[in-house]
Design goal:
25 strands, 540 residues, alpha+beta, 13-stranded antiparallel β-sheet, single chain, 30% strand, 5 helices
């Protein structure tokens, strides 16, 4: 039977429609393939630019830290790295450089990617944005990584007691030559400016380390953060008995320490006033300090306390203290300085870190203080003695008791001004060196040691024979950073290499304390110490 002619026409029409559909599908496929290629090219360009910017920031960081500004050497290093990644910094790639903070450099770059199919869309639609796609990337690198300094860096000091050395901070109206490199506004003499003022806008930083087993080991989630003599005011004492109240009769009422006390049994050291009164550099008026202690919690996701996003910081409490003689020679628990660990998320390993910032907002004097942390506890001798009395802490601060830290400890994060109450030889533990630092450089910087002859200082690792490893350096004079390496103004130590017996204890690989025997030139001398691993790292 013969099919009607209409069936042939319908068949031909279906075949025609199929050709149209195939043609349209092919065009769509080509367009989408082109878009995929273009988008892939844009992403590849973005990755290439990000890689180049990261490398440029890391490579230029040493020059930026050395020069302190965007020098031709910094710019040349950035261009060199970009060209190594096949990017032309004088062509389609544009970039800007800035110094967001000390020893830092920020690189922001943009590259124009010429597309093919996306460009056609731009030509058809008249939208310029589709004709060329701009990608950008940024990176901030820091050249140095600071090693932490223990709050009690001496063999004669016990954590939680006051004796040979303590922390210090000077008022902004003091002078740099008195021993604080960062806090004073004024340089070696009024009215010259301190070139390093403002480098620590929030003050000196102390990290409070709390172990993961703190609650289980101590039976409490409460942590006390106490301060020793946090004010900078000394109640005047009318009488002066040589060898008894340790006072030198001077107006500044410095700490004085003697081996024995006349007429006192049992014999012991006498601690008298740990602050120093000084006159303003500009007008000669004696001015005590107003000191601000700010207790912070940092989100565990933050990578740096020095450059944390403000959203990652929780202010736990702020303690502002001026002239308050009730705190003289006393351990004080400021309001809000008792922390409940249950209120804060631990880090991945279960431990906690809290931070204490210390700065003076006014004053010209030296505030010497101390920090101790641990579970709530009562030391009977401290309660029984008269607060602020001449003999307060005479025996208490020797070996008659131990403060229970509960496994906690406080460390200076970036720099530590140290006040030496007397000038005997001290074995100072500068920092704990992990075995991962084997073979690296470690710079020890010291400011205002007051040794004009730049006499030598020896470094060694605790429990490691000096025949295995030791190093020497040079101390600083007044109002200067100094060391055996004048370029970095410090002593550059090369740590023992990987595989050295210095890192072996029995069958285990262990870290070591870096130590030095140091004697201050005179009692009440203050100097600032920093320890730096000189390596570039990305912080943003």
């Amino acid at each position: 039977m013969k099919r009607p002619r209409i069936w042939g026409l319908l068949a031909n029409d279906e075949r025609g429609q199929m050709y149209v559909i195939v043609a349209i599908s092919f065009v769509v496929l080509v367009i989408f393939s082109g878009l995929v290629i273009d988008v892939g090219m844009v992403f590849a360009s973005k990755l290439q630019l990000s890689r180049a910017v990261d490398g440029a920031a890391l490579s230029a960081a040493p020059e930026a830290a050395r020069d302190g500004f965007i020098s031709t050497a910094v710019d040349a290093k950035v261009q060199q790295i970009m060209r190594a990644d096949n990017l032309d910094p004088t062509g389609l790639v544009t970039y800007t450089l800035s110094i967001p903070g000390p020893e830092q450099i920020r690189v922001v770059a943009t590259n124009t990617v010429t597309t093919t199919f996306i460009k056609l869309i731009g030509l058809v639609t008249g939208i310029p944005a589709f004709q060329n796609v701009r990608v950008s990337a940024s990176a901030t690198a820091e050249y140095i990584a600071y090693a932490e300094i223990p709050i009690k860096p001496s063999t004669t000091n016990k954590y939680g007691t006051e004796s040979a050395v303590n922390a210090a901070v000077w008022g902004p109206n003091s002078q740099r030559e008195w021993g604080d490199a960062y806090s004073p506004i004024y340089g070696p003499s009024y009215p010259s400016a301190n070139p390093e003022y403002g480098k620590l806008p929030n003050g000196y930083i102390y990290r409070i380390s709390v172990p993961a087993n703190y609650v289980a080991a101590n039976g409490t989630s409460l942590l006390n953060v106490q301060l020793f003599d946090p004010d900078d005011y000394n109640a005047p004492v009318a009488a002066y008995t040589p060898g008894y109240d340790c006072r030198d009769g001077g107006a500044r009422e410095d700490t004085r320490v003697v081996p024995t006390e006349a007429g006192v049994s049992p014999a012991g050291r006498c601690y008298f006033r740990v602050d120093e009164y000084r006159a303003r550099a500009d007008n000669g008026t004696v001015e005590t300090d107003v000191t601000v202690f700010t207790l912070w919690y940092l989100d565990p996701a933050a990578t740096s306390i020095l450059h944390a996003d403000p959203a990652q910081i929780t202010t736990i409490a702020t303690y502002t203290v001026g002239a308050d003689s009730s705190t003289d020679l006393r351990w004080v628990l400021p309001p809000g300085f008792q922390i409940n660990l249950n209120d804060y998320s631990p880090m991945a390993d279960g431990s906690w870190n809290f931070y204490l910032y210390v700065r003076c907002t006014s004053g010209a004097s030296e505030n010497n203080f101390d920090i101790r942390t641990g579970p709530p506890q009562v030391i009977a001798d401290e309660i029984n003695m008269t607060p602020g009395s001449i003999h307060y802490h005479r025996q208490v601060d020797l070996s008659t008791y131990n403060w229970n830290s509960g496994g906690t400890y406080a460390f200076a994060v970036r720099a530590m001004p140290i006040n030496f109450n007397y000038n005997t030889m001290e074995t100072r533990y500068l920092t704990f060196v992990p075995p991962e630092a084997a073979g690296q450089k470690l710079i020890v910087r010291h400011f205002d040691n007051d040794y004009p002859d730049h006499r030598s200082i020896s470094y060694y690792l605790k429990d490691v024979p000096t025949a295995v490893w030791s190093a020497t350096g040079n101390l600083s004079g007044n109002n200067e950073w100094y060391g055996s390496n004048t370029t970095v103004q410090g002593d550059v130590l090369t740590l023992p290499p990987i595989g050295s017996s210095a890192w072996i204890s029995g069958t285990e690989t262990v870290g070591r304390w870096l130590a030095a025997d140091y004697q201050a030139p005179f009692a009440q001398d203050t100097s600032v110490w920093e320890l730096i691993y000189p390596r570039a790292r990305l912080i943003k």
